[in-house]
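Marked as duplicate of an earlier ticket. Keeping the data here for the record.
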Amino acid sequence: MLPIFKRWPPKDPTRIQLFSMNTPNGAKVSVALEELGLPYEPHTIDIRSGEQHTDEYLTLSPNGKIPALVDPNGPDGRIISIMESGAILIYLADKTGRLIPADPVERNECLQWLCFQVGHIGPMFGQFGHFYKYAADTCLDPYPVERYTNESRRLLGVLEKRLATRDYILDGGYSIADIATFPWVVCLRDFYKGSEQLGLDAFVRVNEWVTRCLERPAAGRGMQVCAPGEA
């Protein structure tokens, strides 16, 4: 038995076990699982109370971040555990042959935009949210909010330009690149309440794209998985 199962035991050990919370990074994986129709069992890791730093969770994700996943039916039928949302998305897409192009050139393009989210969208939007929402009363220096507002707007501009001639990030349609990215824009708008600060309404194509993504039934379900209070 994996150590994490001692604290969060599976009800059905034949299913994929998801350890997460419905943050933007957590929602990426639950949305993908819903979209792919893979049977899975969610376990809420309450990052507000520090469950991601417990000894049991650290055996699965040494960096103490969500999400993480255990697939009992991994490559060659072996059990596999994976941390980092980007790596999990690639694994699930490859496992099913969906949400990532088969053509090598198009696949590489998908991975580039996935890395764009992991390396830029996530960190910069997250820092914006930290200083704009959480540190507003403790950090009186305007520089952090100005810096991360400007950088978040720049990144939204990159997305706006990319989406000017296509409905989704890739020409071939909805993919893990979209799934990785749209929850972060939703977070800017709905959780950080940053629409006015960022001038989010000006990014028309981005907003239209977010609406298209959220209209997918799997997205609606996946965004609610591992909400605080769920087992």
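See parent ticket for discussion. The two ends are 20 Å apart (CA to CA).
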